[in-house]
Each structure stands twice: as C-alpha cells, then as structure tokens.
Design goal:
The chain has six helices and no strands. The chain has helices at about 5-20, 20-30, 30-55, 60-80, 85-110, 115-135.
C-alpha cells in the first residue's frame, strides 16, 4: 500500500468521524452534559451486566462490567478533589465501590456487589439529573 493510499484512507475516516454524531456532540456538549452521558452509560452497563449474569452469560457480563469500570474510573478522575470538599470525597468513595464491584466480577467472577454498584450509580445519576436541571 502506498503512502497516498494510506493518506486517502485516513482522510476518509477523519471525514466520516467529523460528520458523525459523536463528533458533533463532542463539539457542542457542555461539561454537565458529558458527565450526564457518562453516568447514564455507567448505569446502563451495570444494569446489562446484571441481566447477563441472570441469563447465565458471564462473558457478556464481564464485558459490560469492564466498560462500567472504565467509565467509573473516568468519572473519578474528573472530580475536583482540591476544591470539591465533602461531595468530591463521597463521590470518590462511591466510584471506588463501583470499580471494586466491577473488578470483583472480572477477576474473581463474583457478582454479589454489582447490585449495590448499580444502585449507587443510579442514585448518582438521579442526583445529577436533579442538580443539572436546577443549575441550568
């Protein structure tokens, strides 16, 4: 494959990304919307992991748990620990719990903490929805 062909392929992929909804959302979204989408995605993945466990599909459950763990990690790293006070400390603890529950499934194949992790993620999401509408 020549350099010109590779460049054309990369330009094609770049143009496809630029016209995608992901690109458009990223450029238009404010940070509150991004956090809301991350929390929604976290909650969905935990819910789907639990459903997959109930259906006996451990591999799919692990895949969803891995995604949830990654999102919880990203949310944890968004916290302003210097200025966030007690709220940031509490969210940090809750995200750690979610990550621990996901890793417990991934590494030990134990799912007993996923239900509480899903409950926690749902509570954070509902709180965020309330806070986001009152701020906006």
């Amino acid at each position: 494959m020549s350099f010109v062909n590779i460049k054309e392929i990369n330009m094609s992929k770049l143009n496809k990304y630029k016209s995608s909804q992901v690109s458009q959302k990223k450029e238009l979204a404010d940070p509150r919307e991004i956090i809301h989408e991350l929390l929604t995605y976290l909650n969905q993945n935990l819910s789907e992991a639990i459903k997959n466990i109930d259906q006996g599909n451990l591999d799919n459950a692990k895949e969803k748990a891995k995604k949830a763990e990654s999102v919880a990690y990203a949310l944890q790293n968004c916290l302003n620990m210097r200025d966030g006070g007690e709220i940031a400390e509490n969210l940090n603890y809750l995200y750690r719990h979610i990550r621990f529950a996901a890793k417990n499934l991934l590494e030990e194949e134990k799912s007993d903490l996923l239900t509480s992790a899903h409950f926690v993620s749902n509570e954070i999401l509902e709180g965020w929805k309330g806070m986001n509408t009152s701020v906006a």
